[in-house]
Design a protein that fits this description.
The complex is a heterodimer of chains A (158) and B (753).
Chain A lengths: L4 E7 L2 E7 L5 H8 L18 E4 L2 E4 L12 E3 L12 H8 L9 H14 L5 H8 L10 H15 L1
Helix pairs in contact in A: 2-5
Chain B lengths: L12 H6 L14 E7 L5 E7 L1 H5 L5 E3 L32 E2 L5 E7 L2 H8 L3 E6 L12 E3 L2 E2 L1 E9 L2 H6 L3 E9 L11 E6 L6 E4 L5 H12 L6 E4 L15 H13 L3 E4 L2 H7 L6 E9 L5 E13 L8 H9 L8 E10 L13 H19 L3 H8 L8 E7 L2 E5 L4 H11 L2 H13 L3 E10 L7 E8 L5 E5 L8 H13 L6 E4 L17 H28 L7 E2 L3 E3 L3 E3 H8 L3 E8 L7 E11 L4 E12 L6 H20 L30 E6 L22 H13 L7 E2 L3 H10 L6
Parallel strand pairs in B: 1-14, 10-31, 12-13, 16-17, 22-23, 29-30
Antiparallel strand pairs in B: 1-5, 2-4, 2-6, 3-5, 7-8, 9-17, 10-15, 11-12, 11-14, 15-16, 18-19, 20-28, 21-22, 21-27, 24-25, 25-26, 28-29
Helix pairs in contact in B: 9-10, 9-17, 13-14, 14-15, 16-17
The chains are: A alpha+beta (158), B alpha+beta (753).
């Protein structure tokens, strides 16, 4: 299991080559090899969605993907959302609407929501609820997450 | 304008939003080892040996430990609520002689890489002679160890003449209720990183939560360290709910390994481990009887219950049993009372507290019982509640017993008043009419409510130091802990309110044992009440001192000075940094707040549910929480606590259960088996906050917010399902899974199914 191989991909626009075991998950590669610990691991079996990142603009569970599968891919993580000091509209909305408590699930929800809103800027509320139901939050009871995403969607449409 | 009562945005959010939070798994230091724990695969058995030769032969192995390697470390003690005779039931850090639940740590392996550590752990082979597991807490006690029963303790609380109450009763209602095993299951699993500092000789432990100061003392004692050689540090914590931050075997192993191997050691739990190793809660069976008069007034209440404790008694001692005994009477007068709780060891994961321990369970039992009493007597359940409520004029109201070392005295409350206002706000009559109309049309819908009394603000003390430094920053150093609930914001609001400043110049410190000598941490909805009160006192002191120094520097009488965001103003102005410089050093105010009593908030939950006959699913259509918090420091955060708690309560009522098979194998070991609510399961939670009954027990009048959302959720949803079924008291077991609902539907006359 120790035969390592090179993987090259971009993370938040920056080209990276890392050397990993084939069994290394993308989540571990991002956290340990790229130093991007904003991507969190809540279950490592694809249910909670805390590790959600965008791979070629599609939300994926980075715990269910091997790093080697990301060869040539464009990966986006929570660290790439803000523009310097200026928060992304979704980050700002989560702050304004108390869309987080402990904050552990937040990066996953942010990346999921970015993926949804980039594809469907006008998504209707029932459909949005359905899409967001793929991630778990244990603190908020979800309603402020919904408020936050709806507010960000409105802002992003401006 | 006062900052108390304002829904300001949280100070702690920015790092959490940008991915720069520092949770346990994010802590990394050079030369770190990773620990992996080898866990028991059987529920009960004699552990006669562990074959470790293959593990030792692995090229990546740094060390492999079994019970022999930690024989000098005592079992984990009780942080609270110990009673005589519990010691033999404490958990050793590694199984010794017996294994008592699937998931019990038997060995620990250490390697320089976490994947390698897992490989090595797979090579450790236990030799276990299986024994027949004890799984039913209400069965006759069996043998825990030679001469030692699985009934570790019996806790009882009683007052009044129960025999007379039952002898003179118009009717007696007797029922049995079962509450399923479930738990907090925070999104972040547990973790510990122990770093021996060569230069100072201090062991620094990261990943601490909830009670860092207590755990520091406990670890020092267990590991034979002088107290000044160990410090605990709380980073970001991904949810607490009672279970995170207690002292567990893995924490002790991580620290012992760092000391003995002389290298930093990191342990991060995986989700399977969490679901078999971290504290579970709630599992209990109640047999309850009520003696009532013809008006539905409860003359006497008699409950006997059996608590499914699991394999060992952990840090909470018998706290859950105590709270269950003490909180069952809730808002009702109940002139004669007895509760007897049996603490029963079973071969399942050990239990501790989970958000609203003893209240979620007893609200379910008590409010179910009241609904059945009303049904038997042909009365409106709301009328029966009103007849039993403790009157506003009877406050403070003393129960003739104590809990957690404090006498139970309800400080303030107007239960009937809250219920009236609440029903008015939710338009109760209209809700009832709508449901009746839909039932006529063939839908299976129902409404149910549960009233509850909470407890909050457990003492006995909290210390706070507020310091103005030469940089103009005001540091509020607390012994509290932050598990995601917004401690920094709320303490800053209270401090700013006391000083008359803005929030920007305030920094709040929590969970750092090297910054303040004592601290009680975060549990029992205590931080806003206890730490907040200490902040109030310290801020008032510092304000006086600031004005004195500023008056001297500005050559003005202090009465003529006022505060702005970060400065003292008069005709001229002097910023805080200048005041600190003028004072010749930091300005500091210390305060301690102590209390002998808890404060008792209260409220009501109301659920509207729809039963889908074909799938046996239950949809919660609407969920209301009415809650009197005394005074809300930050209403937005209070509502956040309540909504989150209600979501957990809906999960507990309908979805969440740790299931074990007949051999004691846990069946709920992934998040696909242990079902937490998603967006699809939670309706909009409608929160109605009241501030009609502030407490005289602290200077702010505040009561706790943390556990109100969950306390009567099980009660309300069960009542709503009963209503939908048209059978009062039909639901006797939580969670109401599709299988259980199917059985309830099968009991209905064919025409009603």
């Amino acid at each position: 299991m120790s035969d390592k191989q090179d993987v090259t991909f971009t993370v938040n626009g920056e080209a990276r080559t890392i050397r990993v075991e084939p069994r290394r998950t993308l989540a571990d590669a991002l956290r340990e090899d790229c130093g991007l610990t904003g991507t969190h691991l809540g279950c490592e079996h694809g249910v909670c969605g805390a590790c959600t990142v965008l791979v070629d603009d599609t939300p994926v569970r980075s715990c269910l993907m091997f790093a080697v599968q990301a060869e040539g891919a464009r990966v986006r993580t929570v660290e790439g959302l803000a523009d310097g000091d200026k928060l992304h509209p979704l980050q700002q909305a989560f702050w304004d609407h108390h869309g987080l408590q402990c904050g552990f699930c937040t990066p996953g929800f942010l990346m999921l929501a970015v993926g949804i809103l980039e594809r469907q800027p006008d998504i209707a509320e029932p459909e949005l609820r359905e899409a967001l139901s793929s991630n778990l939050c244990r603190c908020t009871g979800y309603q402020n997450i919904l408020k936050s995403v709806l507010a960000a969607a409105a802002e992003m449409r401006k | 304008m006062s900052l108390i009562g304002r829904s300001v945005r949280r100070l702690e959010d920015r790092p959490l939003l940008t991915g720069s939070g520092r949770f346990a798994a994010d802590v990394a230091v050079p030369d770190m080892l990773y620990m992996r724990v080898v866990r028991s695969p059987v529920a009960f058995g004699r552990l006669t040996g562990l074959r470790i030769v293959e593990a030792l032969a692995h090229p990546g192995t740094v060390a492999v430990w079994t019970a022999e390697d930690v024989a000098d470390i005592p079992p984990i003690g009780f942080r609270m609520t110990s009673v005589p005779g519990l010691e033999p039931y404490r958990q050793p850090v590694l199984a010794n002689g017996h294994v008592r639940y699937v998931g019990e740590p038997m060995a620990a392996v250490f390697a320089a890489d976490p994947y390698t550590a897992e490989d090595i752990a797979d090579l450790v082979a236990p030799v276990i002679e299986p024994l027949a597991p004890c799984l039913d807490p209400a069965a006759s006690p069996s043998e825990f160890a030679p001469g030692r029963s699985t009934e570790a303790a019996v806790i009882s609380k009683a007052y009044g003449d129960l025999d007379a109450a039952f002898a003179g009763a118009h009717a007696v209602v007797a029922l049995e209720f079962t509450v399923g095993r479930h738990s907090g299951v925070p999104l972040e699993t547990r973790g510990a990183i122990a770093v021996p500092e060569a230069a100072s000789g201090i062991l620094r432990v990261y990943g601490a939560a909830k009670v860092p100061h207590y755990n520091r003392q406990a670890l020092a004692a267990m590991l034979g360290l002088p107290l000044d050689r160990i410090h605990l540090h709380e980073g970001h914590v991904g949810g607490g709910f009672g279970i995170r931050g207690e002292l567990y075997p893995e924490d002790v192993l991580t620290c012992a390994a760092a000391l003995r191997l002389g290298r930093p050691v990191k342990w991060i739990e995986d989700r399977y481990e969490h679901l078999v190793a971290a504290n579970q809660s709630r599992g209990s069976v109640h047999r309850v009887r009520a003696a009532v008069d013809e008006h539905g007034f409860i003359l006497g209440l008699d409950d006997e219950f059996w608590l499914d404790q699991g394999g060992y008694i952990r840090t909470h001692g018998v706290a859950v049993t105590e709270l269950t005994c003490a909180m069952l009477p809730g808002p009702y007068v109940i002139p004669a009372y007895r509760s007897v709780g049996h603490v029963r060891l079973t071969n399942k994961t050990p239990c501790g507290t989970y958000r609203a321990p003893g209240r979620f369970e007893t609200s379910f039992v008590r409010e179910r019982l009241v609904d059945v009493i009303a049904d038997r007597l042909g009365l409106d359940p709301i009328v029966v509640r009103r007849r039993n409520f403790i009157a506003k004029t009877a406050m403070p109201f003393r129960r003739e017993f104590s809990v957690l070392g404090t006498d139970v005295v309800y400080d303030t409350g107007d239960y009937a008043g809250l219920l009236d206002k609440f029903l008015n706000r939710v338009e109760w009559e209209r809700l009832r009419a709508d449901v009746a109309r839909r039932r006529q049309a063939g839908e299976m819908v129902g409404l149910g409510l549960g009233f509850f009394v909470e407890k909050s603000g457990l003492g006995p003390f909290d210390d706070v130091r507020i310091t103005l430094g030469g940089d103009g920053i005001i540091e509020v150093i607390t012994g509290a802990a932050s598990i995601g609930q917004g401690v920094e914001t709320v303490m800053a609001q209270i401090c700013a309110d006391g000083l008359g400043t803005g929030l920007d110049c305030i920094r709040v410190i929590h969970g750092q044992t090297d910054r303040i000598a004592r601290g009680m941490g975060a549990f029992a909805s205590r931080v806003t009440v206890m730490t907040g009160a200490a902040v109030t006192i310290a801020a008032a002191k510092l304000r006086g001192e600031l004005l004195t120094v500023a008056g001297r520097l500005l050559q003005t009488a202090p009465e003529r000075l006022a505060f702005a965001s970060d400065r003292v103003v008069v005709s001229g102005a002097l910023d805080f940094a200048a005041i600190a410089r003028g004072a010749g050093g930091d300005l500091t105010a210390d305060a301690t707040f102590t209390t002998e009593h808890m404060t008792y908030p209260y409220g009501v939950h109301l659920a509207q549910v729809r039963i889908q006959r074909d799938s046996c699913a239950i949809a919660v259509e609407r969920f209301f929480v009415g809650y009197d918090i005394g005074r809300a420091v930050n209403p937005m955060l209070v509502e956040g606590q309540i909504v989150g708690g209600a979501a957990q309560g809906i999960g507990a009522a309908l979805l969440e259960e740790f299931v074990y098979d007949a051999s004691g194998q846990p069946q709920s070991v992934t998040l696909a088996d242990y079902l937490m609510p998603t967006f699809a399961d939670i309706p909009t939670i409608e929160v109605i906050l009241f501030e009609d009954a502030p407490t005289p027990l602290n200077p702010l009048g505040v009561k706790g917010a943390g556990e109100a959302g969950i306390a009567a959720a099980g009660a309300a949803i069960a009542a709503a399902v009963d209503d939908a079924l048209g059978r009062a008291g039909a639901v006797r077991q939580l969670p109401i899974t599709p299988n259980r609902l199917h059985a309830l539907l099968a009991e209905l006359p064919v025409a009603e199914r």
